[in-house]
Amino acid sequence: MKRIINIYWLAIAILMGCQKEDVSFYNGESGISFYLNNNEVDSLNYSFAYNAFEKKSDTLFIKMRLQGYVSNSDRKVKVTAADGTTAKEGVDFILPEAVLKAGENTISYPLVVNNTAKMNEEAYLIKLQVAASEDLKVSALGKEIGNTTATDTYKVWVSNILLKPVYWTEMQSYYGVFSKTKYRFMVQTLGITDFSLKNVGYYGAYNYPLKLRIALLEYEKVNGELIDEFNNRISF
Amino acid sequence: MNLTIEYHFNMKRTIFLFSFLSLFWIIGCSKFEQDFTLNKINELTISTEKTAFELVQFDSLLIAPTISESSSSPQGYSYEWKAIIADTVFSFSKERDLHMPVTFSPGAYLLQYIVTDKSNGSQTMKLYTLKVNGAFYEGWLVTHNKQNKGVLSFVRSDDKVFLSPAQDVNHKEYPGKALATHYSYLNNYPALASLLYFTTEGVVRFNPNNFDEIGNTAGIMGKSMTFVDPGFGISTLASDQYIIDNGNLYAGFGIFNPEEILSPFSDRFTGDYSLFPIAFPATPFATYFYDNKYKRFMQVAYRTRIISNSTGNTTAAFNMSNVNRTMVAAEKGGTTNYNSNFYFVMEGTDGRYFMSLNGATPKYNVKVADTNAPDFSRATKFSASASNIENMYYAYDNKIYLYDIKNNTATKIYEFAVQNKVTFLQVQKKTSKQIAVSTLNGTAGELYLFQIDDMGHFVGNTYSKKFEGFGDIIHLSYRD
C-alpha cells in the first residue's frame, strides 16, 4: 500500500513538471546604440586624399541599431560629439538630425565631414556619442545576438593625409616604390583608388602598370619628367 | 503467517525463473533444419568486336553486343547504357543495342553497359571507351579572299572540306580582307582553346570545336582596331600569349591565370621598335622578338609587360643586339640539345642570309647565294621542318625548293604549272610528314598536300591531295 501511494505522488510530480511555462517579453523603453559586427572595431580612419577627385566634403555612414519594438512612426535619433573630439563641429564636421524610419530597426547615421585646410597636416578625431532623444534613449550596451556589440561611442579620424596603403608591399613588384606623387598619378590615370590585388585582380596587376607607363609618356611629352616628393623620377 | 506468505512468493518466483530458463534451453538445443540444395544462377557473357570507339560529334555510334546466357531468365532482361566523364555519370539509353547519333560534347568518355536479369536482379556489366571529336577536330585552316571577301575555310584531316564554317555556324559575314588565322591552345586547358581570325577590319575568336563566335575585336584587344600583318605566339611555359601587328606587341594571359586567358590583350608594349610578326619562345622564361626598325633582337620576360633589348655577344655566331639585317622570314624548326631551333631569313646589304637561334644562342649565320640555292634571293614563302633533319622549304613563283641547312644548298623538288603561283606553304608541325602548299591560278586558289619522306622530299615527287574552290589563299595553319 505504501508503495502504491509513493508511485501516485511520483506521477503527480511528473505531471506538474510538464506544465507549460509562459514566456515573458521585453517591456520597457526603446533605445538605440551604435553596433559592431564580430571583429569590427569601434573606429574608422578616413582620408580625403584617397578620393579619385578632390572632395570638399563627404558623408560617412555609421551603423546604429534599435533595442526594443519597431514603431509605426518615425523616431528621432540623437548623436553628439563627446569629450575628446579635436575636430570642430560645424566647421570640420556636421552632426545632422537623423530619423529611425517607421518599421525599421537599423539606421546608417550620416556623419558629414569637411575637407578643411588643416586636414592636410593632421588627422582630427570626432568622438561620436549616442544621446537620448525625445523618442529613443541610449540602449543597453555590450554583447548582443549574433556576436555583435552595442556601444554608445564611435571614433572617426578624418584627414587629408595620404598614407602608403597597407597592400602596397604586396603590390610593389607591379607598381614600384610608393610615393604620394606616384599614387596621385595612378588615381588620376585609372580613376580608382584601391590598387590592391583583391580589387584589380591579376588582370589589373599586370596590365595597369603598362597603362600607367603609356600615360606617363604622354604626360612627360607635355610636362617633362614627373618627380616625386623624394626627388625621384616616377616610373612604372 | 508472514513466513507462509513469503514462502509462497519466493516459490512462485523460483518456478517462473525455472520455466523461463527451460524455455531458452529447449529452443537453443533444437535442431535447425537447413537447406543445402545448390541452384546455379544464370550467368551472362557480353561480347563485342571492339571496345574502343572514336567518332566525330553527331556521327552515329553503333554497338550491338552479343549476350550469352548460361540458362534462360524467366522474366527476361533490362538494359542500360551509362556514360562517365570526369566526375559525371549519366544514363542515356535503355535499349539493348546502342545506335544513336553521338551528341556528347567533344571529350573522352567511359561507357558502361549494364544487363540486369529481372528474375533475380543480378547485373552484368561491360565497359567501353569512346572518344568524341568535334566536327573540326583536326585539319588545315585556310584563310583566303574570294571575290573581295575574306573567308576562313577548313579542310579536315579526313579530307572533308568546310568552305565557310564560321559564316555558316554564326549566320553572318565577317567584313574585311582576310589576313591570317591562328590556333591558340594552351597546355591542359582545351576548353579555353580558340581560333583567332584576323582581317583588316579586326579579329574574331571562334570556338575551335564548332566555330561558334566567342569574341570580337573589342573583347580580344580591349578596343576596336584594324590589322595589317598579324602574328600570334605563345611563350614556352604557356604563361603568355602574344599578338604582333604592324610592328606592335600586345600580350595576353596564359595558364598561370587561366581565368584571364580569354580576357582582353594588353595595350601596346611601350618602346621604340617595329617587330617582325613572329614570337620566338626561346627559353622558359623569355620570349624573343626581332625589331626590324633597329635590326636587333628584343625580349620579354615571362609574365611581364616590358620589352627590352637582348644582350649581344660579339663572339657568338652573330650579335643579337646588333644584327644589322632585315628579317624577311622566320620559322620554328626542330629541337637540338633540348632547345628549340628558330630559323630566320635575313636581308643584308650584300644579300640574303640564313640565321638561327638554338634556344637563345645564335647558331647559324651563313650567306646564301643563288648559285647554291636557286631563287633564294627572290623567295617570299618559307616553312621549316620540325623534325631532327634540319631543312626548310621555300617557294618562288611556281617552284618549291628544299634547303639543306647544314650544307647551305637547295634543290628544286616540285614545280607547278607555270600559271600556278605559290601563295603560301606550311609544314604540318605535328609530324613534319606533310606540307600544305597553296597556289593561285588567275583568281582560283588551290590547296595541295604533299607527304614528306624521311629525307624531306615529297613522296612520289608529287602531291597526295588537291582541293579547289578557294580564292587567293593568304595564310595556312594547322589545328590539331
| Poorly predicted tracts of residues of chain A | none
Biggest sheet character of chain B: 5 strands, mixed
Uncertain parts of chain B: none
Percentage of residues in DSSP E strands of chain A: 25-35%
| Quaternary structure | heterodimer
Walkthrough of the structure:
- The complex is a heterodimer of chains A (236) and B (480).
- Chain A is an alpha+beta fold and 236 residues long.
- Helix content of chain A is 26%, strand content 28%.
- In chain A, strands 1, 3, 5, 7, 9, 10 and 11 form a 7-stranded mixed β-sheet that branches.
- The termini of chain A are far apart.
- By secondary structure, chain B is mainly beta.
- Chain B has 3 helices and 36 strands.
- Chain B has helices at residues 2-29, 165-170, 217-221, and strands at 44-47, 52-56, 60-63, 66-69, 77-85, 88-93, 98-101, 107-117, 123-133, 139-146, 149-156, 161-162, 178-184, 194-199, 202-206, 213-215, 231-234, 240-245, 248-253, 280-283, 286-291, 296-301, 307-309, 326-336, 339-348, 351-358, 361-367, 381-384, 391-396, 399-404, 409-415, 421-427, 434-441, 444-451, 465-470, 472-479.
- Chain B is elongated and about 130 Å long.
- Chain A binds chain B through residues 201-203, 206-207, 209-211, 213-214, 217, and chain B through 253, 257, 260, 263, 266-270, 303-305.
Key phrases:
heterodimer; A: 236 residues; alpha+beta; seven-stranded mixed β-sheet; 4 helices; 26% helix; B: 480 residues; mainly beta; 36 strands
Give a quick summary of the entry:
Chain A is of the alpha+beta class and 236 residues long.
Task: Present the secondary structure layout.
The complex is a heterodimer of chains A (about 240) and B (about 475).
Chain A: H1 2-17, E1 31-36, E2 43-47, E3 57-67, E4 75-81, E5 93-94, E6 98-100, E7 106-114, E8 124-131, E9 137-138, E10 142-143, E11 149-151, E12 153-159, H2 168-175, H3 180-190, H4 197-223
Parallel strand pairs in A: 1-9, 2-12
Antiparallel strand pairs in A: 1-3, 1-11, 3-7, 4-6, 4-8, 5-7, 8-12, 10-11
Chain B: H1 2-29, E1 44-47, E2 52-56, E3 60-63, E4 66-69, E5 77-85, E6 88-93, E7 98-101, E8 107-117, E9 123-133, E10 139-146, E11 149-156, E12 161-162, H2 165-170, E13 178-184, E14 194-199, E15 202-206, E16 213-215, H3 217-221, E17 231-234, E18 240-245, E19 248-253, E20 280-283, E21 286-291, E22 296-301, E23 307-309, E24 326-336, E25 339-348, E26 351-358, E27 361-367, E28 381-384, E29 391-396, E30 399-404, E31 409-415, E32 421-427, E33 434-441, E34 444-451, E35 465-470, E36 472-479
Parallel strand pairs in B: 2-9
Antiparallel strand pairs in B: 1-4, 3-7, 5-6, 5-8, 8-9, 10-11, 10-36, 11-12, 13-14, 14-15, 15-16, 17-18, 18-19, 20-21, 21-22, 22-23, 24-25, 25-26, 26-27, 28-29, 29-30, 30-31, 32-33, 33-34, 34-35
